[in-house]
Structure formats: structure tokens, C-alpha cells
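Quick entry between incubations.
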Amino acid sequence: MNSQVRIKNQWNEQRIFAQRTFAAMLVITVLILTLIGRLSYLQIVRHDYYMELSQGNRVRLDPIPASRGVILDRGGNILANNEPAYQLELVREQVPDLNDTLKRLVNLGLIDPDELEDTRRVIFSRRSFDDVPVRLRLTEEEIGRFAVHRHEFPGVDLATRQTRHYPFGQLGVHALGYVSAISEQDLERIDRAAYAGTTLIGKLGVESAYEPQLHGRNGFRQILVNAQGRSVQRQGAYAPVLRSQPPSAGDDLILSIDLRTQQAAEDGLGDHRGAVVALDPNTGDVLALASKPGFDPTEFARGISRSEYATLSDNIDKPLLNRALRGTYPSGSTIKPVIALAGLTYHVVDPNKQEFCAGVFHLPNSRLLFREGKTGRHGWLDLTHAIAKSCDVYFYGLAATIGAERIASFMTPFGYGALTGIDISGEKPGLLPSPEWKKTAFKRKEDQVWFPGETVNFGVGQGYLLVTPLQLAHVASVLAASGKSFRPRLVTGVRDAAGKIQTIAPVAEPAIQGVSDADWELVRGGMVGAATYGTAAAMSKGATYSIAGKTGTAQVFTVARSASLSAKVEERLKDHAWFIAFAPVEAPRIAVAVLVENGGFGASAAAPIARKVMDAYLLRQNTPNPAEIVTPEAQADD
Amino acid sequence: MIDDSSYARTRRTLFSSARLLSVLNLDGPLLLGLGALAIYGLIILYSASGQSVDTIVRTVMRLALGTAAMLALTHASPNVLRRLAPWLYLIGVLLLLVVAVSGVIGKGAQRWLNLGLFKFQPSEIMKLAVPMLAAWYLHDRPLPPTWSSLLMLGLIIFLPTALVAVEPDLGTAALIAASGALLVLMAGLSMRIIVMVLLGTVAAALLGWSSLHEYQRTRVLTFLNPQTDPLGAGYHIIQSQIALGSGGLFGKGWMNGSQAQLEFLPERSTDFIFAVVGEEFGLIGLIVLLALYLFIVARSVWLAMQTNDTFSRLLALSLGLTFFVYVFINAGMVSGLVPVVGVPLPLVSYGGTSVVTLLAGFGILMGLYSHRKLIGS
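Done. Structure below.
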């Protein structure tokens, strides 16, 4: 065996130590250099990157919401502004005895005993240094009650936030829209960063359509925070300099709405379901846009409960529906002036030729009979009188003579079946039927045929034709201005925070071509006749200006009415009443369309409302300025 | 004349302090390095603890205790230390067993023994006892160590390492293992074995990786790349790198590091205090700190080379090099070079009994140097 006794060799060991020590120092040097290399990379090469991360850790941006733009009517009356709302906030770590504090708040009537457990849970779900709202929407009386006892509640305080206020309550709500809490859907279309700190966003109407202008730009404040997210003043021995940027308020909107006219429209509708739209034919300005019933938009801004919302949305009268833009109805006889114009333009009618109305119309080559409405038989009448007296038989025949294709193509430039392009969203196009349309609209072959009888009905605005009150107001303005028109609009100007007003120019629509001035004049004569000696003679009694108008009655049900239906339902089966008008006839300044759902005859139900609206705008009388009745102060007191 | 007298006074002062140092068996340069490090440490600790005077007072007391241990141990001759080594090791292992048993009873990680007056970590003893026993074992045996010697040394190192690792205190276990392993390396472990062990480790790692479950691999990857788990295991290391990186070349200034002062940096006064230095004093501050450590290590190694018996030389080298391992693991962990293990930055991190053990170790080192047998005497 190669067994060998090993003894210690001092010189050999000395050599090993020296070598190993040298190697160790070499390794140490390499490791130290590696370390310094790594540190240089972090501290020099990537310094800017880590500086940003460090800044992001210690600085939090606290948004300062911009104040929302105010909405004014054309006379400068405030329709929507901002008001502080008070809420009670609690900071857990500053409250000495939370249970006792909550109990005493319940005793003061500031917290609902049923919500005590929820409130407690919310408080504990937040950090101990957070402001937790424990009660929203304090009334003035409650604010006073708390203020007296404030010193007994350390860690509990009043906080304000801006909320939207509509001084005139429901007035014009369907034009204004409303604001409410930002929803999930809203979050998908807005820039979240720009809305940090904003709690309310426009829904519907002008509030929604002009949201970018009204919102403004939020500001921010830099806040020093520690790792727990708590706001602190100093880091170590120093208090760093922090930046802030003030918010810039949203732009104010100047509406075309005339408060007095709007008030007249809503008063006129009263408790009826219906809509009124008044336009300035020279600009397209919407002077009034009313839809009844309405609702109080301030409730939405304050925060509406689920049950309150359900009450509104389940209401059989549909207060949330904007009938002026979204309600579609048969036009009834309001179509007759346009049919007459079509006949004149296509030269298929002699305006002076007398036709005989025996109260019934026989469609040629058919056994169908079309009856006059409730106006009975008119005897001999020419075109002007046929419009004024709204003779169905005359227009049955005229429509049959012109033909459905030509009627539809003549009506198209008036805006039937198309969006008017008003500057708020939600508008419906209605429906302009034609034989062409029928081929595509129905699936079954037998339904795609256009029957001659349908053309006859077309002539008096029954059948498939559907229009909105806004569309008919636009038609009235087209008739008033001999084919010229402007796109309807609610906003006429924007005022920035510095007070500089930028007016928005009216947008002219293409004028209707091919209709002679004489024909426009002739049809207007028929409408003046309707308002003076015809179907709507009663409405112009005592008027100091000249009025042109046309009544309409849209059938809801053509079936025989059952006697067993209850009175409530019976009322809802009555015909819809229409009235369109413009005035003064020589130089029209206002064109109106009024619809009263289930109002019966246009002459009795709708025409008087139109008169009130025109009086309010043209005479500035009969209707007191609503601002004198319901002042913002009076509103805030109740 | 004036020059002359001042020169003489300086010389006298130097001479008398040198005499004092030699009476106390202390090494001037090493003492100076340790003192400078302690002062630097106290300055940064005051900032890192959130300006806590209480922390500073406690640390100064620990430093005083450590200095006392150091002064006492400088007088221990290599022969005394060698005779004490087995007993110290035995006592240490017994105490670790006591800790393990009471830990089982207490149902939790147990590192401390409560001695009534103060708490005491028996694993600290092993940081000194393991290299002492290993040096004692090799003292009479020929170097490089034989296979049977290596087996024995392996057992000496493994037993306390395992006991500490199951506490669990992986950081201390790693340091105990390192102190033993470094000693064996310095004793002339053959290059063949070193290479074989390294290759074996790599092979085992590869083999282990292929046999790991998917979730286990994810854990390992998180360990290597903290960005994949920024709020969990990666949080410490991400925040410490932000602190270092944002400090830049010159730092944000004393008591003005936002990461440290606003507590984004966890363990800011203990394991991650290195990042506070980097944030407040920048790369310059870190290089100064590393230079101090390098000086202490180099001086320790130089002192070790001057001794001339196997026991002294091995023990002194192990103590000096283990000190560097401390520094490298801590700095490497904080800067993201080394996985996160709980190793404090020696003489700077707050807390624990490691200050006492470290200074005691330097006391032993200086004692070994001053008791060296001068060749020819």
C-alpha cells in the first residue's frame, strides 16, 4: 500500500497561505468592483428612472375639481348653476370613542339607526386616516343642528362638495338634461385622468352634448405621502417644495331657449302628456323645447336612490321620455300644406278649381270608401279653403293624383324621416314611407306591396308616416321661410371663464328648390285661413299679429272601441292632437309645433297652447317672467 | 526651534499612544478603521431610524459592550483560545439544542435565549466557535487537509449550520457555513475539489430545476426577478433599488431621503440600511463605506499573515474574510445582486448581538497578532 506518514511542512504551509491569501484578495477586489459596477448602474445610468419612481412613491396628486360651466337662457337667466352640498365626514383615528360618537350622531338624528351597521362597516373598510362620508345631503336645519354640537364630536366635520342646481326646477329639463354620478359606461368614453376628482357628469340634453365645454380642466395639488398613504408635512428633517395647479372653470353656455316662452309652453301643456317645440325660422334657434311630464334634475345631481329612479322609469306617463325629440306620432292633417305644395309643384292641381266634398271619397277602380273626419261634409271648396277647413276628401283625391312616390320624394327635403341635426343627442328620425321603403321594410312578400289606399291615407297624414314634434316645428319654419331653413340648435354661444363670449353662427340647411313663390304664398294663405276662419279660428281671437297654422289629429286606434275599457285606458285611446303654426305671417319670427297626447282635436287641445307660446315670445306678455315667481333663493329655502 | 519642539511633542504623543496600544495588544490601523466605521454607522443610523435618539443610545451601549469584549479577548493567547475551542463549540451546540427544544414548545421560530437580564442568540457563539474548532482541528495536522480531515471538518461545520438553519435563520446559517468553508479553503483545499464542488453544484441546480413543479419555478423566478411580484416578495428589493437609484451620485442629503424617511424602504434601519446610505449620501457615500470595509478586511488579512502558527493564521484569516462575506451578501442583496437573505450590514445595521460578536472577533484577531511568535525570537 502506498501508505505514507505525512508530517507538517511549515514552509509548504507558508506557501499555501500566501497563495490562497493572494487569491482571496483578488476575489475580494473583483467582488467589490462588481458591487461598485452594479451601484454605478443603479445610481448613475438609471438614476432618472429611479428618481421618477421615488417621486411617484412620495408624491400623490390630489385633484381639485373645476367648477362646471353655468347654463343661461338667451336673456341671461341662470338655468343651471353650482351649489355647495354639505356632508358629514369622519376620520376614525381622530375619534376618541367611535361607538359612542356614532350613537350620539344617531341621537341627534343625523344618522339613520337602520344604516348604523352599514356606516360602521364603511368606516372600517377605509384607512384610519381617511375622511369617510357618514351622511350625505344634509339639510340646512341639520347643518345647524350639527354646528351647535360640533365641539362634542372631535374627528367629525362638515365638508362641502359642489353639486348641480337648477333654479327653475323641472322647467326645460328635457332640453337641459341633468348631471349625475359618473357611471361605468361613462368611464369607458371619458379620459379618466382628466376626470379625477370630478363626481358629476352630464346626462342627456345640453348637459351631456356640451360636456367637454362645461367640464373645464381640473387642477391638482401635490401631497407628500408616506408608505401607508398618509399625508405628511415633512420627510425626515425637511419639508419639500410641492407644486399645485389651479383648476380652470368650464365654459358657460348661452342657450337659444327663451325662459318666458319655455314657461308658456310648459304651463300650456299643464298636466297633459305632450310636447312643444318653438323655433326661430331665421336662425334655427330653439326658443322653447318642452316635454311633459318632466322631472326635477336637481334630484339626480344630489344622488337619486334606486327606488326614486324606479318610480320615474316605471311611471306609465314616462316622465324620462323626451317626447319633443323621441316621441314619434302620425302627423295627421298637419301634412296637408305640404301635400298641397306638392300638388302645385307637380302641376296636378288647379288651386282655383272648386272640388265637391260629400263627406266620402271613392277610390277609383276600387270599392274602398274613405270618410271625412268629424268635420262632416264641406261642399264646394278650392285649395285654400281645403287647407283652412282641413278637408280630408280634397286631399284624398289630391294624394291619389300625385302618387305616393312623388309625395315621398317631395317631402324628403322638408326633413321628414330624417334627423333634424339638433345639437343634443337622442333624436329619433321618425318614418317617411314610400313604395320603395315598403319593399325593404317587410319580410313577407305580400306585405311589401304598396296599396293605392295607402296613398290616399298618406294624403291626410295617417298610415306609416311618423314624425316628432321637433320635425314638425322644423316643417313649420320651412313653410314660414318659403323653403329656407336652419339646423335647430339649443346653444348659441359659449362664454369662457374670462367672460369672453364666442357666438356660434347658425347653420343654414339647403333651401328647397323648384317651388315657386306664388305656390308658397298660396299654401300660407290656406294656413292663415285655418287660423282665422278655418278649423283653428278660435285660437287667433284677439291676436294683434297675424298667424298661419294647421291643426292635426293623429289616430291612435282605428279599431272599434270597446265599451268595457276603463276610463283611464279609454283616455289613452283618444287621438293625439297636433297644431303647427308660425307668426307674424309677413315676417315670421317664431314657428311652433304642439303635440298633446290623447288630446283629441288639434284645434281645441293643441292650438291654444301654441297661441300662448307665440304671445309669450312675440308680445312678451300674458305670461309673467318665471324668474319673478320662482327665484333661486325661494327654491333654496324649501 | 518651534518646529523642532512641536515635532518632538508629536513624536512623544505618537510614541505614548503606540505604547498604550501595544500594552493593550491592540492594532492601531484596524482600531482606527473600526472606529471610523462605527461613527459613520451611527450618523446614518440616526437618519435611518427616523431621528431616534433612543436607537443611538442602545447602539452605543452595544458598541461599548463589544469593545469591552474586544479588549478582554486581545489578552487571550493562541494557546488558551485553542484549548477553549472545543468547550466553546460544545456549549454553543448545547444552547442551540435548548433553543430548538423550547422553540418546538413555543410553536414558532426561536432564536433567542432569555437570560433574564438580556436576550442572547446562541447562534452568535457559533460564528466564533466554528472557525475556532476547525482551526483547532487542523492545527496539528498536515496541510492541505486529507480526505478524512475534510470529512471531520464537514461535520464540524454542518452540525451548527443545520441547527441554526432550522430555527429558521438562513442568514446566520450561511455566515456560519461561510466562516468554516473559508477556513478550509485557506487551509489549501485542492483546486480539483473546488472545481468538482462548483461543477457538482451547477449540475445539481440544473437537475433540480428540471424536477421542479411549475409553481416552484415561479417562486424561484420571482426571487431572481422581483418585478414579477412587486407587492409580495419583490417589494423589499424594488424599494431598495429605488432608494439607491434615486440617490444618484451625491445623494439626497442627510435625513432627506424620501424612500427611507417616508418608510417606503422596509427594514430601513436594520437589513436595508445600506440603501439609506445610497439614497442620502449617493454613490460617493457608498464608495467611502465600501473603502472602509475593504481597509478593515485588508488590514485583518495582513495581520493574519504575520502570525506563524497554523491555528492563529487560519482563525485570523477566517474572521477577516467572513467579515467581507457579511458586507458582500448585505450590499449584494440590497442592490439586487444576491437573493434576499437576512444578513445585517456589519457594525452599521441596528440591533442584534452581532455587534458584540464582531468586535469580539476583532479582539481575538488582534490578540492572535500581538501574541505571534516572532521568527528568530
